[in-house]
């Protein structure tokens, strides 16, 4: 493997003075994230283990197999798409590349449950696509001829990959862009043919970025309930859900959730262990890669190839939603509920994003300052929330927040004779808390990835010039990692807008987001009434994509 | 800290003005209860605040404890209502109005919960299919192999049906029946109850199991033209148990144990049992009203005379967990 040796910054660079404060701050952040997990743990321990003999004999083997196959399938397809496309737009130049570069992010705007519903409808035997196929083949009724049902594991893998590959694309492209051209040139000088640069140099160098992207993708896939439910795929996440809801066994559900968490932690640790001896530094600010220009037929062909995932992952579902929304609008007009929902959706997502960003930077910065065991441990703990299904995180947060609210309310009643009501839940703070727990891994990961590209010698220089750790962060690191941070923040923003289970469980009275509205309609089968809300989710999701494309273009800024 | 203080002051402010509100925690979809809430607010001047929780309503009320603002807990499926009682978050309501309006078998014997509407688990059949009557037992007949559509076996609508089957035939016979039904499925047990009508139109299956009110929602055109086509593609057969009637389930409500506005809460429940509200249940939601003398929607009436199965709701609830385990055991959703 062609790897760059670390520039070996020593751990003794900065004076020890201010570090404990950063570690303490990050420790508090980690504590806040771990608290709900601990609450769940105690719930799980309190339950009986009777469930497992039933599960082991019935659905557990199938659910495990389905879950692993789903992860494997999505990991492979989304990983392949993301990496290939990232290489396509960084190493090659062709007509339309500028637009394609950001258009490839558009599927991010489409939540998994929406893509599943849209394709189920479009590809249904009575839908437009099969109608056209029958017309071409000369059949008059779906009873004579129809294509295989999309409700299957394979269908689920394909649909999830179509909307999740941008996570890999985003992280990998940033890495390709920041790879110094010198390395590629060196490889070429040593006789590597251009077409093999990708496999021999760029790909191994981008491995950390790919790992981050693929694990984001897998967490999202693992978290999905909506699409799996539509498509009849029984994953562990679905089992958690039915154990809780249908069997009325919360303790059992948390036990399965902890098993799931263990699987994720094992996967992540294995990946880290596998590249334990490798230092990745690409901090040299040399020229970036010069893409190879293709014109004519070949250029158009490359462009067409790159456009395909955008068409299937975004254009098709978006056009479908727009058509449905248009029909609905003509049928029932524009509901004034939508305005209130827009305000709630944006307010909560915005607030949560800001907080998640700040706390993510704190966790990543503490990791940088304390490379021993404390930093990594704190960082790992602070990012556990992302590995747990949203439903489970939501219950965990509820188990932490509600007793606190009761305590405050009880104390206020005893001392002042007034009721505060539910302080955290009633004010929406509980929901923001849940978002932070769920998505902190995204901003912490982006901050960490960004910081990793800042050579530690810069820290030393700033510290020598008398800056404190915090001063260095503000004056040196934040400006240098702006692009990474913006990317992370925008992912969190879109995720908050799409988030469903925690929002459903923890929101205050009368608060409605686009996602909860959509779910409320979908739950009783009246999807059409929510098509406007669904379209709104997708449209809001586009805005960050556009911004993302702007800041992502120049990763060194 | 400042934010917390801000939150505190707003909360105190709202707590002051919210004295006469009714706060509803509901697992019923907002669209279904909004017309009822609107007409209640109009009739009484009492403001209504809602939060739609779907799953986790019980957990939330339990953990919120005495501080919970919830007055009314609304849910679909008798099992969910019984869960609320078991978790100790409801209180008995002694109301002559409710007792008079709601038949005894559709409410809790200890007055904790009250059924407000009910629906039947029926069979949809392709319009031109030569089939006039069917029993639930028949659904496992191998002659339907590859011709039946149904949603997830773990959905409460189905576990209630399977639990009723256990009440009639015992667990062993139910397992055999479930395995037979599973073998008859045309596609994975997934999606919703309207999807099965669409799948019948799409030629994927000939018969399907689904709730009665969806037919009204589809055929009335409330869901757009396409759904009218789905609804028109099927005919509804009211299935029965060989030794009983058609399985029904309820939607209902209870007053929360720590309800801060109990008077308004009771007023709200009584309103829901009134002729005016029951008509909304029948006309806007296509459900069967619980109050005698309230007319059915013509679409629902066209299914024919409904013979409600005699298994008490409480007994169905008891078999629910066993039913859910049988669903796992036969790999129904796999």
From TrEMBL, chain A:
The chain crosses the membrane at residues 21-42, 62-90, 102-120, 150-170, 201-219, 250-270, 299-326, 346-367, 379-404, 416-436, 532-551. Its main location: membrane. GO terms for cellular component: plasma membrane. The keyword Transmembrane applies. Keywords: Cell inner membrane, Cell membrane, Membrane, Transmembrane, Transmembrane helix, Transport. Pfam families: BPD_transp_1. Residues 64-269, 342-548 form the ABC transmembrane type-1 domain. Signal peptide: none annotated. It is a multi-pass membrane protein. GO terms for biological process: transmembrane transport. It comes from the Bacteria. It is found in: Cell inner membrane; Cell membrane. InterPro entries: MetI-like (IPR000515), MetI-like_sf (IPR035906). Belongs to the binding-protein-dependent transport system permease family. PANTHER family: FE(3+)-TRANSPORT SYSTEM PERMEASE PROTEIN FBPB 2, INNER MEMBRANE ABC TRANSPORTER PERMEASE PROTEIN YDCV. This is Iron ABC transporter permease. The lineage of its organism: Bacteria, Pseudomonadati, Pseudomonadota, Alphaproteobacteria, Hyphomicrobiales.
Automatic annotation (TrEMBL), chain B:
The keyword Metal-binding applies. PANTHER family: IRON-UTILIZATION PERIPLASMIC PROTEIN (PTHR30006:SF15), THIAMINE-BINDING PERIPLASMIC PROTEIN-RELATED (PTHR30006). Pfam families: SBP_bac_6. GO terms for cellular component: outer membrane-bounded periplasmic space. This is Iron ABC transporter substrate-binding protein. Residues 1-20 form the signal peptide. GO terms for molecular function: metal ion binding. SUPFAM superfamilies: Periplasmic binding protein-like II (SSF53850). It comes from the Bacteria.
């Amino acid at each position: 493997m062609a790897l760059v040796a670390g520039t070996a910054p020593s751990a003794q660079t900065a004076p020890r003075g201010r570090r404990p404060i950063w570690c303490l701050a990050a420790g508090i952040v980690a504590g806040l994230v771990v608290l709900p997990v601990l609450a769940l743990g105690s719930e799980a321990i309190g339950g009986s283990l009777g469930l497992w003999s039933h599960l082991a004999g019935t659905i557990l083997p199938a659910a495990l197999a389905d879950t692993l196959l789903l992860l494997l399938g999505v990991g492979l397809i989304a990983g392949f798409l993301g990496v290939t496309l990232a290489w396509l737009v960084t190493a090659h130049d062709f007509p339309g590349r500028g637009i394609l570069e950001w258009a490839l992010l558009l599927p991010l705007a489409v939540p998994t449950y929406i893509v599943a519903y849209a394709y189920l409808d479009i590809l249904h035997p009575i839908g437009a696509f099969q109608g056209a196929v029958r017309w071409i083949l000369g059949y008059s009724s779906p009873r004579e001829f129809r294509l295989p049902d999309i409700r299957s594991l394979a269908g689920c893998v394909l649909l999830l990959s179509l909307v999740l590959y941008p996570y890999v694309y985003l992280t990998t492209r940033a890495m390709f862009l920041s790879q110094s051209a010198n390395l590629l040139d060196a490889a070429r000088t040593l006789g590597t043919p251009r077409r093999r640069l990708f496999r021999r140099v760029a790909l191994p160098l981008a491995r950390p970025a790919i790992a981050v992207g693929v694990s984001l993708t897998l967490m999202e896939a693992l978290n999905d309930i909506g699409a799996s439910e539509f498509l009849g795929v029984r994953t562990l996440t679905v089992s958690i859900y039915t154990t809780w809801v249908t069997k009325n066994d919360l303790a059992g559900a948390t036990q399965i959730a902890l098993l799931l968490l263990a699987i994720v932690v094992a996967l992540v640790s294995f990946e880290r262990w596998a590249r334990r001896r490798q230092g990745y530094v690409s901090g040299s600010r040399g020229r970036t890669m010069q893409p190879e220009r293709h014109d004519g037929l070949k250029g158009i062909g490359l462009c067409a190839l790159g456009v395909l995932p955008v068409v299937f992952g975004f254009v098709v579902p978006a056009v479908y939603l727009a058509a449905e929304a248009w029909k609905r609008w003509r049928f029932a007009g524009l509901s004034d509920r939508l305005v209130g929902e827009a305000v709630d959706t944006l307010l909560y997502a915005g607030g949560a994003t800001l907080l998640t960003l700040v706390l993510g930077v704190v966790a990543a910065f503490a990791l940088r300052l304390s490379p021993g065991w404390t930093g990594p441990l704190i960082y790992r703990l602070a990012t556990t929330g992302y590995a747990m299904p949203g439903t489970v995180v939501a219950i965990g947060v509820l188990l932490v927040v509600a007793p606190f609210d009761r305590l405050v309310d009880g104390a206020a009643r005893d001392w002042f004779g007034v009721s505060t009501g539910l302080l955290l839940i009633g004010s929406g703070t509980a929901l923001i808390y849940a978002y932070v727990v769920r998505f902190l891994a995204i901003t912490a990961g982006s901050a960490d990835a960004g910081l990793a590209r800042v050579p530690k010698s810069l820290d030393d220089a700033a510290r020598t010039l008398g800056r404190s750790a915090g001063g260095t962060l503000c004056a040196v690191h934040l400006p240098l990692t702006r692009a990474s941070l913006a990317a992370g923040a925008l992912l969190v923003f879109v995720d908050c807008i799409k988030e469903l289970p925690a929002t459903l469980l923890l929101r205050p009275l009368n608060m409605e987001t686009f996602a909860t509205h959509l779910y409320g309609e979908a739950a009783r089968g009246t999807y059409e009434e929510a098509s406007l809300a669904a379209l709104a989710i997708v449209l809001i999701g586009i805005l960050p994509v556009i911004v993302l494309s702007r800041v992502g273009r120049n990763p060194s800024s | 800290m400042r934010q917390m203080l801000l939150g505190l002051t707003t909360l105190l402010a709202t707590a002051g003005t919210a004295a006469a509100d009714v706060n509803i925690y509901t697992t019923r979809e907002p669209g279904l209860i909004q017309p009822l809430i609107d007409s209640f607010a109009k009739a009484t001047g009492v403001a209504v605040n809602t939060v739609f929780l779907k799953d986790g309503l019980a957990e939330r009320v339990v953990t919120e404890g005495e501080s919970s603002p919830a007055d009314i807990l609304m849910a679909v499926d008798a099992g969910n209502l019984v869960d609320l009682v078991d978790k100790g978050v409801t209180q008995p309501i002694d109301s002559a109005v409710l007792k008079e309006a709601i038949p005894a078998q559709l409410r809790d014997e200890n007055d904790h919960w009250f059924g407000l509407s009910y629906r039947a688990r029926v069979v949809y059949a392709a319009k031109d299919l030569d089939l006039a009557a069917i029993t639930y037992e028949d659904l496992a007949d191998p002659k339907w192999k590859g011709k039946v559509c149904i949603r997830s076996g773990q959905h409460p609508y189905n576990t209630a049906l399977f639990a009723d089957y256990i009440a009639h035939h015992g667990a062993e016979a139910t397992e055999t029946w479930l395995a037979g039904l599973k073998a008859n499925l045309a596609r994975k047990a997934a999606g919703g109850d309207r999807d099965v009508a669409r799948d019948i139109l799409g030629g994927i299956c000939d018969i399907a199991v689904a709730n009665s009110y969806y037919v009204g929602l589809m055929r009335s055109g409330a869901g757009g033209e396409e759904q009218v086509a789905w609804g028109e593609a099927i005919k509804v057969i009211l299935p029965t148990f060989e030794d009983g009637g058609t399985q029904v389930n309820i939607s209902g409500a209870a007053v929360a144990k720590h309800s801060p506005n109990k008077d308004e809460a009771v007023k709200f429940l009584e309103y829901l049992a009134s002729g005016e509200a029951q008509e909304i249940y029948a006309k806007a939601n296509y459900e069967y009203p619980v109050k005698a003398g309230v007319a059915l929607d013509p679409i629902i009436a066209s299914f024919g005379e409904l013979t409600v199965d005699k298994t008490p709701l409480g007994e169905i609830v008891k078999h629910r967990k066993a039913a859910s385990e049988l669903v796992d055991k036969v790999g129904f959703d796999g």
